[in-house]
Amino acid sequence: MTHSLNEIEAIAKRAARGSGLSWGLAEEAAKGTRWLSAFDLPGAELLAQLLVQNDRIPQIDVSPVSLSAEVWHAPMRRMSPLIAGASLSDCAQSLLSRGQIIMEDVSFPLLAVPFMGGASLRLGVPVAASWDDAHFVTDGKLLCVNAAQTALAVDRANTITFSTPAEMSGPREPVLRASVSSGAWSQLAAFAHRTYAPATEESRRLGAGAGLGDND
After folding, report:
1. Alpha carbon of 71 to those of 67, 158, 197: distances in Å?
2. Alpha carbon distance 205, 183 (integer Å)
3. What pLDDT does residue 113 have?
4. Do 8 and 37 contact (CB within 8 A), yes or no?
5. Backbone angles phi, psi at 119, to 5 degrees
6. pLDDT tens across 64-99, in order?
7. Cβ-count burial of 82 within 10 angstroms (0-12 exposed, 13-18 middle, 19+ buried)?
8. pTM for this one?
């Protein structure tokens, strides 16, 4: 089923928040999911899988131990691409001065790619990311993709290398609507439902429809 990018961003934000992420990180996750979807990449599907994998796991366990380390890793040896990606964007100047940042054991690495865009816009130069058979370059607005389909959907990358400056070649143009599998949409909706306040007797009485009354 196809959805507008606005719809995808909205459900991704609610789902990320429902999984326990802060509103700030949920907003970043939603923007990243929208960005991937705009380039016909499976952002929503991978976000749904990530939220299931990290459900109720403390964020500190899947966050980089040190942003100044030669190689970033998480205590669980399973790093969240959302947290790592947001940290990468914040460390854009460090990326430029060092030339590269390496991360180990990153879950669903494609979800970290949108954060390269933020880093690129801050630096004013394209940023690249590589793992296995996947290579991406972005200037923050367009995206170059050279990757096998299996590498796009991989659930874990042993190593991701982010580097700058990089060269843009054959960029994709963004679209306004994207396909999301029904299974992924349902899973995101389930997480989003956690953000809704539970019904009370008072809310049901004041809600639309007959409520507790009998009009027959």
Report:
1. 8, 12, 41
2. 34
3. 97
4. yes
5. -65, -40
6. 999 999 899 999 999 999 999 999 999 999 999 999
7. buried
8. 0.89
Q: Which residues contact 216 (CB under 8 A, 6 or more apart)?
A: none
Element (H, E) at 169: none
Distance (Å, whole) CA 52 – CA 28? 18
| Residue 128 Cα distances to 116, 187, 216, angstroms | 7, 31, 66
Crossing angle of helices 43-53 and 182-193, in 10° steps, is 50
The total of other beta-carbon atoms located within 10 Å of residue 11's CB is 23
Residue 83 CA to residue 52 CA, distance in Å, equals 16
Residue 29 CA to residue 178 CA, distance in Å, equals 17
Identify the band that residue 201 occupies on the pLDDT scale cut at 50, 70 and 90: low
Give me the residue spans of the domains in the chain. 2-174+184-194
Cis peptide before 165 (omega within 30 of 0): yes
Residue 84 one-letter amino acid: A
Q: Could you give the count of Cα atoms lying within 13 Å of 75 in the half-sphere of its Cβ? A: 8
